[in-house]
Here is the input.
Amino acid sequence: MSDGVLQLCRYMRLVLGEQLDRRFVLGLLLCGRKLLVWLCDRSGLIGTEDPIDIHSEPETFIRIIMAFSQLEPHRLGWDPNMLLARGEEWIAPTDPSVKPSDFGQSLYDTKWQITVHPGRVYYTTEALSIIRAASLSGSGTVVWKVQDENGEECVLKRIWRLITAPTEQDIRSVLTKDSPVCEIEFCADAMVDDAVDNTHQSIRRGLEELRAKSLEKVSKRRKIADAQAGVDDATHAEKYIHLSAEGKLENLGEERQPARRVCTYTLMKTFGKPIKFFTSVGQLLRAMRDAIQGHKDLWFSRAMHRDISPGNILIVEDGKYTGRLIDLQNGKIYEHDVETPFTDPPDDEECESLIKGLKRKLGVELSHHQAQDLLNRHGFACEIESRCLALQRRKFSDQAIIAHMLSTTSDKVASFPDVDRATAKSEERLTGTEAFMSGELLLPAPKLYEKTSENRTHNHHVIHDVESFFWVFVYLCITRDGCRGSRRPELGPSLLDPKDIPLRLFVDCLFDTKSHKTLIYTKESILNAPDHFIKSILPEVHPDLQCLSTLLEGWWRLMALSYLTYDRLTPGIIHDQVLALFDAAIKKLAEAPPHGADEKRTTTPDLATQQLPPILGRSETEPSTQTGHWDGSPRRARSSPPRRSPSPRRDGSESPTPNPNPGAAPEFPSSKKRRTDNEGDLEHRERDIDDDSAPLFD
Here is the structure.
């Protein structure tokens, strides 16, 4: 029967993805005379333990069929708070008079009336994101552009959040000052039958789960129901993002409980376009910088985002900021701080030993105060010397090592959250978009980036989020077609030039692969191998964005050094170190000879040719972002001429492919091209680990 159950799961996924007004799905599996009843909600899959014999138990079979025919729609999975638009009236989608034409041309165009609470009614104008709706277990996030009863436009998000998790408003409220983080009007739990709509009580009616049985993994793509979406991602805001809709069937076991979830609505005032639709180098730099600043503001207010991805950084141009960090649903609030400055007085002899050792081995002179601070951060003098020597062997210069380790002292750093005190490993839920997560988080223990395991537990630390920002920036620089608002033609369905093979391979191994091992191995190769990033990845940056190579290289070195010298102070300084790199790049861009409106040209050959518009307010040389919808990217007319040929490499040659020999950068695993659907070749899958690996059960 397991094959039948798996097929039923696929049908349930289809229902959840195609009917946005579904809270859960019921399914019947009849094999001969044996009947199984299954229910799928956002907590997973639950079914009858033993089959029902419809011949020996006809009364039970009749009761089941009668229940399907007599129960109210909301008891069968429909959302009573959502009504369908038909002309000037609003009707229940289960009304017998409803026709297929009432649902519009696509899921994105279907119009709904959504009652969040009595007195809070919103009317959708279009769906902005439905990718996660098809998740068998997880958040099931759907986002609409809506209008209230006064015609004011906002963004409404529906999410099935963990019942123990804070709301996005809770996360945002930790900020006591203005910050480039999404502005949230309110969060409210949905109500059904005058009770909060949650999976345990409202849907499962308190039903407890028994032991799990074996089910195999289901991995099948869901096609987006958008008839007008072409192969160019500039025509659709959800194209080429990493999906979380690929759930896994995983046994709970006898000791584990399903994740109980509650349906929550979040009304946001912030909306724009995803950062991948940047139209100038200056806009990209400022939007990334603003998002990192917003993350820093959250961090020093005792909260962390924990899901950095291109889809969670918006270009807004709202008069205050160019970019804003959104999607706080995986965020976490911490109760305790790591107090600074560090006041544990190290032994004077240890200080003298460190001062003499670094002077003898590296030619560096330390003050007594600097030596004390280093010992408080790293431990013993011999450990610090050992780390410096290890960095030398990795071809980091003495100046780079010392400049990094002595960049500041603890008395100049504000207190920051104590992650390890807040969460035991057994209680931590892994969250994030897998393609952009730190490879360290994908491992069962923090041993990926060498010599750090003794300084950090396997919790989600702030350095992991900063690393995610790094991968997002790398992704944008190597996959976007310059500032044209579209994906590179080299990454299209057909291989146009053999010279594009390294680029396609790197993109697949770094971002598109389904294999955890490949993701881990590739990220380890880039951060651990000397010169690997410079020789293999930088040549693949789009020619129009090669002006960002200095920033990319500096950020890579910062991440490598930060992991290799990780200490108690790293979480308190990592943001400022990255922001300093962006400030330098923005300053260099601003000092370049002015070119007026040319700053938004389709080619960006060199930093020296770029003009930086003002950081605050709208630029006179850049088009304003469309308010009300983040699909403000350049629209491609169907009659437009064929795409140009791929841009040439900086040196006209293939990028070097590293090899796995010791002492050299490892070679990326080969990847066989996958067949694609109407979303285009190399489609990315937005994999929220909280969604993707949340268990299903029977």
Q: What stands out?
A: Residues 214-254, 596-698 have pLDDT under 50 and may be disordered. The first strand starts at residue 25 and ends at 31. Residues 121 and 139 are 22 Å apart (CA to CA). The radius of gyration is 27 Å.
